[in-house]
DNA sequence: GCCGTTTTCGGCCCGACTGTTTTCAGTCG
């Protein structure tokens, strides 16, 4: 079983136990372990084989034994018993807003409802309103919630979420009394995909802002409206929540709504140990007096912590690091001096080499590699060897035009063909300044085959970077089923850089493997894979992944100067 | 079920909002 499968099993156990009415802390323990598995970056089977299970956060004796049983047998007697006691189809009910474990248990035990269809029928027939704690409004709310499931958008790409947020914030910012308003939540933490949007505002007249929010023309329905917090569903099926506090409490509010939930729980535990109580309104001392924070940084400082950038707030060790002064010096936009992956009209890009180069200069880049597709990818206009020569001439022309404003490299995004060979023969690759090797098709090959295909490319001495290593497409298409440990080990051994493709529909490597790669001494390249000048601005999303992976400039090839980069490439050519 | 610069046992974040309640439970983030 994979890490993800075991994590999903633990989530399932947690939810079933909750419905069963088990103490909440047991279920939390299973969820914590699931999160640990998802963020691991190495194969859980390896961790087990090396006897390190108990060293994982949130894994104790009971959960370690269950991991072992799952690895050994592929099943779990404990879960099978649980599923005999609690019908697993009840988990469907938890998808409905306003239905949690208590309601699910109520519907099951007192109305015999075990799945979503039965729930829907019961609500329509008015059979829910008689149950304890239920009334007509609750029944209607649940019916509306079931209908909303069909409308609900999938997780949004960060780019889409950004655009929606910007549009809304612009409107809301114009409301009288609004001093500050911005996006928080997972969008601010720069997660690769975003579920709901969360906005926070500093405002003296919250009522006016709340009205502006809930009466916005794009509102499909209002899910809740209070003094400090409202939430709506948009016509596009996206849920947005708006939180409001007066300006003097904006710091704690922004901190709280930025999350993650797990980070906040740790932070509040830390506050408690110091005799303080942290909430979205203030830090309260034991004598009842409040400390207010207009700025978020003050909250961390008051708890004795260095400022933790939002991208790190996932309860992955950042609070301990902040306590001991060991937070990473995260890579920033201004550290990036090179772009190694872009396309021009020579293949499937929409702009000329000159236009791309000028756009790169505008953005302050000092090195740009033009990496059009190679032969072997006909759909993307892959270049023949003859066209490659024409392209070299054009790159030289533009280089002469731009002089020392930028260093242009002739590269290629070379296809790794299904049999593992590359789109150009070695003598052609040898003439290029830089070679990215990428997978675009036959991604569903069995693990051993596709892993060998990728590692084979790394072993070619001309290949410098592996482009978008997994081939995933967000939000839906999963990447290749790679043996990541073998891939990362090969990258470390051959000193091949792995790309973090910044295109918001890729973001590949993901943050988990990017962090693991850096730990193993693998060099990362943050590239936009731009097919037009404005795509160069996707860089911010790639940096989001890099920062969430705790990367510093020293981990990233693009942070080096032109001479260093040329030196690195030269060295590789031997 | 996990965990320990107050603990190997006794803790485990905090508040807003809703709907059902006459003071609170459930859900959510």
Explain how this protein is built.
Helix 1 crosses helix 6 (101-111), helix 7 (116-124) crosses helix 8 and helix 16 (353-362) crosses helix 17. The longest helix has 18 residues, at 3-20. The radius of gyration is 26 Å and the shape is globular. The chain folds into 4 domains: 3-151, Orthogonal Bundle (DNA polymerase, domain 1); 156-245, Beta Polymerase, domain 2, CATH 3.30.460; 256-323, Beta Polymerase, domain 3; 333-573, Metal-dependent hydrolases (TIM Barrel, Alpha-Beta Barrel). The protein has a 7-stranded parallel sheet. A 5-stranded mixed sheet has the order 2-4-7-6-5, with helices on both faces. A hairpin with a 4-residue loop joins strand 6 and strand 7 (239-245). 43% of the residues lie in helices and 13% in strands. The protein is built from 23 helices and 17 strands. With 574 residues, the chain is an alpha/beta fold. The structure holds one DNA strand of 29 nucleotides.
Brief characterization of the structure:
The protein is built from 23 helices and 17 strands. The protein has helices at residues 3-20, 24-38, 44-49, 61-73, 77-85, 101-111, 116-124, 136-151, 158-173, 185-188, 206-214, 250-258, 261-273, 296-302, 318-323, 353-362, 385-402, 426-429, 447-459, 484-494, 511-519, 539-548, 562-573, and strands at residues 156-157, 178-183, 193-194, 197-203, 219-225, 229-234, 239-245, 277-278, 283-284, 290-291, 338-339, 367-373, 407-415, 434-438, 465-466, 497-501, 524-527. Helix 17 links the parallel strand 12 (367-373) and strand 13.
